[in-house]
Amino acid sequence: MPSYTVTVATGSQWFAGTDDYVYLTLQGTDGCSERHLLDKPFYNDFERGAVDSYDVTVEEDLGEIQLIKIEKRKYWYQDDWYLKYITVKTPVGDYLEFPCYRWITDDKEVVLRDGRAKLPRDDKTQILKQHRRKELESRQKMYRWKEWHPGFPLSIDAHSHSELPRDIQFDNEKGIDFILNYTKAMENLYVNRFMHMFQSSWSDFADFERIFVRISNTISEYVMQHWREDFMFGYQFLNGCNPVLIRRCTEIPKKLPVTMDMVECSLERNLTLEEEVKQGNIFIVDYELLDDVDANKTDPCTIQYLAAPICLLYKNLEKKIVPIAIQLGQKPGPDNPIFLPSDATYDWLLAKIWVRSSDFHIHQTVTHLLRTHLVSEVFSIAMFRQLPAVHPLFKLLVPHMRFTIAINTKAREQLICECGLFDKANATGGGGHVQMVQKAMKDLTYSSLCFPEDIKAKGMDSKEDIPYYYYRDDGIKVWEAIKSFAEDVIHIYYESDEVVCEDVELQAFVKDIYVYGMRGVKASGFPKVIRTRETLAEYLTVIMFTTSAQHAAVNFGQYDWCSWIPNAPPTMRCPPPTEKGTVTIEQIVESLPDRGRSCWHLGAVWALSQFQDKELFLGMYPDEHFVEKPVKEAMAKFRRNLDEIVNTITERNKNKKLPYYYLSPDRIPNSVASLMTFTCRDKYSSLGSVSKYRPSSTYAQFVSLLRPLGFVDSFFCFVGNEEDTLMEKFVEKV
């Protein structure tokens, strides 16, 4: 009788193993096998990280294996199982791979196809067409669109992380608890003693060092030392954590009535201001979006303020960008003066601080939240709804959607919700951040997500004119590498433009993004349909770049640039000055965040700037969704291109006081779901049997199991720590 060798790989994450009964059925072109229990006598099957093999004997040859069905049935208690993949060795010696990479929960079953990617047109048999259709029907019931706030991109229909489909939940929900993370961050930074000191002002700038000195690093320390200087102020518009707002000024706006007399002493080329504009030496950053946004009123003891400044900048003879004029409101008038470098020292310094505070708000809510997280969630939901696991574009995109929906749901649950953590320290909390997203949607266009096109539209594309714009230089390199990879994959599966047009699943994916994500707004420029391979390559590059590189560029520099509070105040406690010559150092310190808000801000930017434990960076694809050799060769080529970029960036950064590395591919996670997590480290991965001693796979029950051993109170598993106290003591007790 024919015999098949079936190999089953269980995931290596915590609680991936199972004690439940597992059954397998093989379905081929010539018949279907009996339901086989996968079990070895006197052996613990399906342990965490295990790869187990079984012989499955059938009555007669099944022909070409098309599907395999895996059923899990309860043994003692419901025991979730993470199945990585199954391989089948046929009687004639052929090997078939069946990727899964998902959780099997309760008494559920999954039906898997072999790992070869297929377009809808490739499926010829009814059984494969039916499997494809059923998978999407099931997914569309689980992944439903919902409006969180009017005018927002639609998000997942789930009120909490626990309501999400198991496959997209974090492996350890407690590890991504924002409240726990921020609190532990403040403990780890030795600032928790200040965290409840709201309304308590700092004494002076030096006093801020009390929460800074122990946690300084190369860039943040340099910022602390040079933050008052104009070159540092200008440099951040190019290479700080919000390098997306600056644009070349082609005409001085009427709402900023700057005259030649005001700025003459700042211009170095013996040209008039108008001539400097014509030569392309003047740049502008306008925070108009913040105009009329309500400031945070959640704390009646502290009045908080916002401003909507306009900042004019100049490229000097050294080709460095420096500020030459700042107006703190949108409407010119006698109570809205234009501040200049020639003004009194504290007048000019406070004006720059207001710009930095406004920049922080735009960065957090628009650049970071809207234009990476919320947009990535749109891509992710549409992918799960419209692309089956066998589709080549699902296999290409799924690494870039890892935990995206989960982290956004957790943020809506704890961070940006009403009375959430965002309200604690930010002047745009309490609803202002919602207004900002609603206003910013009009500028969320497809072309603005096309990196080279956006850079060019802002007049920032010339390397000769603007030589120190490393965000642009590195971003274009990464964009081109991603686009080349997307083109290689597209040409493997789409032999012509006609095949692109005929792919109904692709077109449904694109339509979902336009209709639900972009709310069907024609002005967004998002395509409703894709007709060519060239357009598809750009579209996929937008998705992959936004979820990986763009997020990395605006996320991981937050501690570097925002940890020195005066350089990025999350709130201001005094209104913007309405006249010159009155600002004192005491007024500036009183305007800056109090001790409590400073500490919450510091904990936030530190936590947000950390990589996940076991982070997967660009080009790393440990889950082998693709099995075909041509795609694996394309992946290898992609990694080589990324390695070249890493080497180029590393060489450029040598001996730089301000190295720029946020877009180095070895520091770009595949997805937006990067946050400090409190998890047990893989140094204990040999403890596979730990999962067998738990009453269930939930964190709470695991803790309840450990509590009688007397060490749960020592649960401080910090990412970056050398030791995990919980697991150390667990090993000792066992």
Automatic annotation (TrEMBL):
Keywords: Calcium, Cytoplasm, Dioxygenase, Hydrolase, Iron, Leukotriene biosynthesis, Lipid metabolism, Membrane, Metal-binding, Nucleus, Oxidoreductase, Phosphoprotein. Binds 1 Fe cation per subunit. Residues 118-674 form the Lipoxygenase domain. It is an enzyme of class 1 (oxidoreductase). Ca(2+) 2 binds at residue 39. It comes from the Eukaryota. InterPro entries: LipOase (IPR000907), LipOase_C (IPR013819), LipOase_C_sf (IPR036226), LipOase_CS (IPR020834), LipOase_Fe_BS (IPR020833), LipOase_mml (IPR001885), PLAT/LH2_dom (IPR001024), PLAT/LH2_dom_sf (IPR036392). Pathway: Lipid metabolism; leukotriene A4 biosynthesis. Ca(2+) 1 binds at residues 17, 79-80. The keyword Cytoplasm applies. It catalyses: (18R)-hydroxy-(5Z,8Z,11Z,14Z,16E)-eicosapentaenoate + O2 = (5S)-hydroperoxy-(18R)-hydroxy-(6E,8Z,11Z,14Z,16E)-eicosapentaenoate; (18S)-hydroxy-(5Z,8Z,11Z,14Z,16E)-eicosapentaenoate + O2 = (5S)-hydroperoxy-(18S)-hydroxy-(6E,8Z,11Z,14Z,16E)-eicosapentaenoate; (5Z,8Z,11Z,14Z)-eicosatetraenoate + O2 = (5S)-hydroperoxy-(6E,8Z,11Z,14Z)-eicosatetraenoate; (5Z,8Z,11Z,14Z,17Z)-eicosapentaenoate + O2 = (5S)-hydroperoxy-(6E,8Z,11Z,14Z,17Z)-eicosapentaenoate. It is a peripheral membrane protein. GO terms for cellular component: cytosol; nuclear envelope lumen; nuclear matrix; nuclear membrane; perinuclear region of cytoplasm. Its main location: cytoplasm. The record marks 103 as: Essential for stabilizing binding to COTL1. One of its GO terms (biological process) is lipid oxidation. Residues 2-118 form the PLAT domain. Fe cation binds at residues 368, 373, 551. Its EC number is 1.13.11.34. One of its GO terms (molecular function) is arachidonate 5-lipoxygenase activity. Its cofactor is Fe cation. Belongs to the lipoxygenase family. Homodimer. Interacts with ALOX5AP and LTC4S. Interacts with COTL1, the interaction is required for stability and efficient catalytic activity. Interacts with PIK3R1; this interaction bridges ALOX5 with CD40 after CD40 ligation in B cells and leads to the production of reactive oxygen species (ROS). Interacts (via PLAT domain) with DICER1 (via Dicer dsRNA-binding fold domain); this interaction enhances arachidonate 5-lipoxygenase activity and modifies the miRNA precursor processing activity of DICER1. This is Polyunsaturated fatty acid 5-lipoxygenase. It comes from Chloebia gouldiae.
